[in-house]
Design goal:
With 153 residues, the chain is mainly α. It has one domain. Helices cover 68% and strands 3% of the residues. It is built from five helices and two strands, in the order ααββααα. Strand 1 and strand 2 form a beta hairpin. The longest helix has 35 residues. The chain is globular.
């Protein structure tokens, strides 16, 4: 896995597809995002998946402005309505995505890596988790940008 403390370079294929996938999710192009995620999973496997998740977490951090090193409480957002929902109603994949982001922001490398290992090896399970993560990041970026625009008006 590539981390800020690791000398390994990021996989360029995974990083570019991850960037395009979150951009597609931001504009509501779920099919395009899913196709790009599949390209990562099928093209470079778990090392590329780790890099992609790192990119999505970095995107979340950069675009929402949350500081590093804090415990972050995330809103669970219904994937179809965009409305906040309680954790008890959130899909396990959504809870997992939130925990990954929280570990990244808290700089809890051990927890971050444990959560990625929890993905297992089943392609469909991995795809479901990654698709949810991209949608979750996109939803939070949209919320942050909406709040920013509201503060400016």
């Amino acid at each position: 896995m590539t981390t800020p403390n690791s000398p390994q370079p990021f996989d360029a294929f995974a990083v570019s597809r991850a960037q395009y996938a979150v951009a597609a999710a931001m504009t509501g192009e779920a099919d395009a995002a899913s196709t790009l995620i599949a390209a990562i999973v099928d093209g470079v496997g778990m090392p590329g998946v780790y890099d992609a998740v790192f990119v999505w977490c970095a995107t979340f951090h950069a675009r929402t402005g949350h500081p590093f090193g804090v415990h972050l409480t995330l809103t669970y957002v219904h994937p179809e309505t965009g409305q906040p929902i309680p954790e008890s109603e959130a899909a396990p994949t959504l809870v997992w995505a939130s925990h990954v982001i929280q570990a990244y922001v808290a700089r809890d490398k051990a927890r971050f890596e444990d959560l990625l290992r929890d993905l297992g090896e089943d392609r469909e399970q991995i795809m479901e988790h990654l698709t949810t993560m991209v949608e979750h990041v996109a939803a939070h970026v949209r919320l942050a940008e909406s709040a920013g625009r509201a503060a400016l008006s």
